[in-house]
Amino acid sequence: MQIHELTRPRRVNEGFLGGAAAALGGIAKQVGKQAINKAVGGDVTSQDGPAQSREQGFKSMVNSPAAKTLATSMQAAWAETVRNFLTNAKDSMGNPATSVRGVSTPSTEALKTELRTLVNKMIGGSQSSAFDYSNMANNIGDPVAKAGIQEIIARINEYTESIFKATVLGIDPKNLSNDWLKLVGDGILPAQNARAYDSKSGSVITMSPAATKIADLLRLDDGDIVKIRQAISNPGGDRVAATILNKTTPATIASPLIKQFGQQTKLTDTELTSMLAMARDAANDAAFKEIFGLRA
Fold it and tell me: Which of 48, 86, 150, 234 has the smallest CB count inside 10 Å?
């Protein structure tokens, strides 16, 4: 199941004031086609040439030209996002806020979400609306690869937290260039390399041909399957699976349990209807259990 082949229209969350999305719109123009191809998941690259494995792409790229170019563009995008945030922000007295530190409404957590959106955009690309970098290690069986991706996630968390705290404290953005460079070179580019490797070698999530066929017919990408498995693993998730696979009393999207499942997985009513219809065929039970992350 190739990730790029399963991309489908999604309800895109543009975030508070659409700041990150709007700012990112100009990044391709600023960075240039060649840098984008190297820096934003166009290929699995390293300082020494094409990487032959996912792990080879984990090495630091802080000193690469691509990292410096992308870090500069992301820093500019973040500065615009912060300006957009402050446009409608208020301080504790209800007056227009002059700094992030003085913002009372909306919560600065809304701005923090924008920073995460920016990072997910650069790693997830066209799939960023359904992508969360913190889930990248999920379903990776190889312990070395899993540990490498977990380390990348930890670095991204560290540097985004540092950038956000500095933003709240009002530190001059020009003094954060080193943090942005580390975020890109030690986090975003290695994460892009890992995803590029996975997209060329097949899906990050390995499933049987039968389960893959069902997923393809339902147009479920890896992000969808991760969300489905998380929903099924939640307390009460086994009831959802049993309801979907029940042949005696076929489930409908009107069921509160199925509605809740749809909300958790971000699946539309149309997608849920297709899933329920295919689940009525007993021949698909083993495939659905695999998609749900259950033992057949």
Answer: 48
User: Does the pLDDT of residue 57 top 80, yes or no?
Assistant: no
User: 272 and 262 in contact (C-beta within 8 Å)?
Assistant: yes
Could you give the CA distance from residue 168 to residue 114 in angstroms, rounded to a whole number? 13
| pLDDT higher than 50, residue 16 | no
Instruction: Supply φ then ψ for residue 49, to 5 degrees.
Output: 120, -170
State yes or no: cis peptide before 256, omega within 30 of 0. no
Q: Do 25 and 159 have their domain in common?
A: yes
What pLDDT is recorded for position 40?
Answer: 37
CB 61 within 8 Å of CB 155: no
CA distances from 48 to 60, 108, 144, 287 (A): 12, 41, 21, 41
> Is this prediction's pTM over 0.85?
no
Q: Is the pLDDT of residue 47 over 50?
A: no
SS3 of residue 242 by DSSP: helix
d(CA 41, CA 24): 16
- The answer to whether residue 112 is domain-embedded is yes
Residue 18, C-beta contacts closer than 8 angstroms, at least 6 positions apart: 84
Q: Are residues 42 and 146 in the same domain?
A: yes
Q: Could you count the other beta carbons within 10 Å of the beta carbon of residue 262?
A: 18
Q: What is the DSSP letter of 84?
A: H
Distance CA 95, CA 134 (A): 36
- In which domain, by residue range, is 261 found? 209-291
Q: pLDDT category, 294, cuts 50, 70, 90?
A: confident
Helices within 94-247 (DSSP H only): 108-124, 143-169, 177-183, 189-201, 209-218, 222-233, 237-245
> Taking a C-beta distance cutoff of 8 angstroms, is the pair 43, 86 a contact?
no
